[in-house]
């Protein structure tokens, strides 16, 4: 089980990943957040399968799982240390629903942090989308400028777009 810092709000956003075009948290990370072993967590999910429609939860394919292993080195060596089945991926709604099947104060507390992390991601995405739209409009309006001025604006635009695309530690 992974160790988390004292302020879980700072940690959770690093566990949100994009898989199949959706922002998700993997079962092992949610189990760690909620303070239970992954196999027990997944056991509760299976027992409450009717609470998790396909837009709340999906299982990764073996190829997706292998890709995650190679990117994040999540597979430990040794007998009994690896997973038999590919991880489960929980969308924002699925992560919250998972807190409802666990009857512990920690699960309730952590569900609040999970919601806040997803909301921060959504706000960040909306901000970048709006900024990109405004830059595109500005670029079109500058099309009538002379070539030298246009070249200078293009350099500024490229620098701004580079800053927007750069990965940041805080969301």
Describe this structure in words.
It is a single chain. With 171 residues, the protein is an alpha+beta fold. The protein has a domain at 8-123: Mlu1-box Binding Protein, DNA-binding Domain (Roll), CATH 3.10.260. It has seven helices and four strands. The protein has helices spanning 8-12, 27-34, 38-47, 62-72, 92-101, 105-141, 147-165; strands spanning 17-19, 22-26, 57-59, 88-90. A four-stranded antiparallel β-sheet has the order 1-2-4-3. The longest helix is centred in the C-terminal third of the chain and has 37 residues, at 105-141. It is elongated. The model is unreliable at 1-6 (pLDDT under 50).
On the 0-100 scale, what is the average pLDDT?
A: 77
Number of E-type strands: 4
Second-tier CATH architecture of the domain at 8-123: Roll
Q: Termini, distance in Å?
A: 24 Å
* Discrete helix count: 7
Mind telling me the C-alpha Rg?
A: 21 Å
Q: Strand order, biggest sheet?
A: 1-2-4-3
The largest pleated sheet is described as: 4 strands, antiparallel
| SSE topology string | HEEHHEHEHHH
Which CATH first-tier class of the domain at 8-123 would you pick? Alpha Beta
Q: Uncertain spans, ≥5 residues at pLDDT below 50?
A: 1-6
SS class: alpha+beta
Q: What is the fold-level CATH name, i.e. the topology of the domain at 8-123?
A: Mlu1-box Binding Protein, DNA-binding Domain
Fraction in helix: 55-70%
Strand content: 5-15%
How would you sum up the global shape? elongated
List keywords for this structure.
single chain; 171 residues; alpha+beta; Mlu1-box Binding Protein, DNA-binding Domain; 7 helices; elongated
